[in-house]
Amino acid sequence: MRPAAAVAAGLVVAGALMPISRASAAAAARESVDPALREQLMTAVDDATSFDNRFAAEVWLLDMATRLAPQMPDAGRRMALLKTVHAEATRAGLSPQLVLALIQVESAFKRFAVSSAGARGLMQIMPFWIEEIGRPDDNLFDMRTNLRYGCTILAYYLDKEDGNVVRALARYNGSLGETWYPARVERALRTRWYGR
């Protein structure tokens, strides 16, 4: 996994779980912005790619759509989300299933979710990022935008942690040094997105 993805995830999680006021959480996160992460987010918002061939796409989409159906009954919305998750995860060098597990834990697949700290959307992105990278018109409730930011952040943290998924997920959640959040994501990954 790429380092950029790992770093990105840590910032998202940190902002979403801090037991402080919304303004304090945003200010604290903004103060600790890593310039390399800012640069990677700026580059990521203008990029895209995905499946190797049609057969691989059909197999993965059918399998994941079946797993996601209980939480997202609308087949059109479900397929659009899965295609976008695959494209953005692949672009960032991440496992699409890891991203699905993270979304399950972060927002339960609710596109308009807002945390008590103000993190938004599927991957719970802190709004300060849109100003931090100079894109004030970006909408964090837009599925592709939210996934682009979140996957870039998680990839950055994975790079920063030399591929250590537990530490990268803890960074994403803002709980570095603890394992409860990575354990939740790992459990979702193992029990729902890779089979039983």
Automatic annotation (TrEMBL):
The keyword Signal applies. Residues 1-25 form the signal peptide. Keywords: Signal. The keyword Signal applies. Residues 86-180 form the Transglycosylase SLT domain. Transmembrane segments: none annotated. Gene3D superfamilies: 1.10.530.10. PANTHER family: MEMBRANE-BOUND LYTIC MUREIN TRANSGLYCOSYLASE C, SOLUBLE LYTIC MUREIN TRANSGLYCOSYLASE-RELATED. Belongs to the transglycosylase Slt family. This is Transglycosylase. It comes from Salinisphaera orenii YIM 95161.
